[in-house]
Fold this sequence. Notes:
Helices cover about 35% and strands about 20% of the residues. It has helices at about 30-40, 55-70, 85-100, 125-130, 145-155, 205-215, 230, 235-250, 265-275, 315-330, 355-365, 405-415; strands at about 110-115, 135-140, 160-165, 195-200, 255-260, 280-290, 295-300, 305-310, 315, 335-340, 345-350, 375-385, 390-395. α4 links the parallel β1 and β2. α1 packs across α2, α3 crosses α4 and α8 packs parallel to α9. The longest helix is centred in the N-terminal third of the chain and has 16 residues, at about 55-70. The radius of gyration is 24 Å and the shape is globular.
Amino acid sequence: MSDHSSSDLEAQPLKRTKTSSGAKSLPDHISYKTLAEKFPRLKEYLTETKTIDFQNPDAVRTLNQAILRVYFDLDVYLPANSLCPTVANRLHYLEWIRSSILVDFPPSQSISGMDIGCGASCIYPLLGVQVLNCSFVGTDINSESIACAQKNVAANHMQSKIRLFLNSDQNVTLPLDAEGFPSNEADADGSVFTFSMCNPPFYKSQDERQQLARFKARLPSLDTNGKDEELYAEGGEEGFLTRMIDESVKLGKHIKWYSTMVGKKSTLLLLKAHLRQSQAKHIREGTLIQGKTTRWVLAWTFLEQTRFITNPISSTQENTYILFKDIMSDLKISIEAKDAEHMRFVCQAREKTWTRQWRRQQKRNEHTQQESQQIVLQFMAIIKEVEPHMHQIELFLEPGYPSNLLMSLFNHLSRRI
């Protein structure tokens, strides 16, 4: 997916894609009877029709525990007084992160995420380690939730991958500057996290929640039964997420991509308008549909574009590589194999040989014969098959180098192929 400037990506329902090698996921259909055979505690909640009563909190908690255990090898305690996360819904959000955000980064780059409001279940970090193969920092403002989340992390032996932080300031959603926050080492761009994610409080108050439930002519789903701070926030989700956007403006590039789930379409429209005013460089959105429930994902960044993709080339992989190598050689750009089997290469330019300025200087003989020792641009190139006998070249900017320089090189490359 190519990047779009401050215009939004079209919101589309998530299409389930093949997971990366070794990544775990859910089947298209789950048989509760078969699931109960693998997780016996679920048997007592099966009805005569081999389903469960979704108005029974214990049944739904046990179902989600069964799904986590059977399909993801996760043992998760879900306390009765906290949100009971719907696994499929959470998984869809993580898969959207993978397909819409992480594609901006080369496969070799380490990925780190931040979960705002991890809750007692710590569901996003636990699933994220499995699905995205990344590390996580989870935050929460409730000490009881953090304590339970810590037990869930330990029960699954993920202490080296997941760190937790009790946020003592309820007015701050992104506590990266808080004392004791377990931040990562900043990369060359100044970023400490690849992405952040959040399942925000949806309601302003219990009255609003009950009014919405009556409007929908049904009881609130179990997914919205939990502690007050998990359900309610000043100004509801609009107020909570507006404050998050304002904080992200101040933090800027500390997080490469900020993201959140959004419960109401009206909120989504307001937040997008606020992001445009906040000078976000790029905005992306997606639609997550689970049963009768629709949620949206909104993501934004203050970084320039870092990934560029050529149009498909009708050629074999080997011939596409030869074409690319010859162009790079002509431009005096070095190529070193990072992973030759998967056609991944690290490229370095010591002169801006593809630019008009360089060519003008060349005509005036302003270049010395000695090659510059300073690297002016470094990027990763990947040659990827998009369909049989069709390949594309993807360029990924390495941190610390200017995006506009890679863009100009990409435009030059595109013209020549």
